[in-house]
Design goal:
alpha+beta, OB fold (Dihydrolipoamide Acetyltransferase, E2P), six-stranded mixed β-sheet, 4 helices, 6 strands
Length: 174
Amino acid sequence: MTLSRLISHLYSAACVLLLVLIGLGAVPLLSGCAPHTSLFADTVQAGPSASIGVLQSDVLVINGEAVHLADAVTPQPSPDARCAAEALAARQAALQLKSLVSGIKTVAVTRTGTRDGANRPYAHVLLDGVDPAHDLIVNGLAVTPDNKPFDWCGPISASFPRVAHIASLSFSGT
């Protein structure tokens, strides 16, 4: 075999090896383009492999992802609250939500496909089959979402559900 032929074979082998290495390197990159499933399943078993917490009065953290409750509008906490009453009501709503997530066994999450201003997905959530948004609304700590914004800083109205209950919670420090 002549020297030029040997160099030609080595060059061809090097090109083939380089193509194989490039191909193997592209596989992980291309797998990033594949569609991925959600970060958590629609039904999550709470326990050692799943976690749930409360970020604010209408935002849960499920397996490390913040999820905004789609079925309730709650007051904003400080520093976003427009008045002290709104901040206090937000604190009470967050405490109520924390008590609802305590000791739960299952979490069912159904995303709406929309996101809030902080890019968190809106979702309908059930905690052991109970809707926390409904519980917050019934206890006067949230309102149903509609086109008309609720004024948490307006004068307290006797017609607002559970106003006396909210006031007693606020002064009891719970």
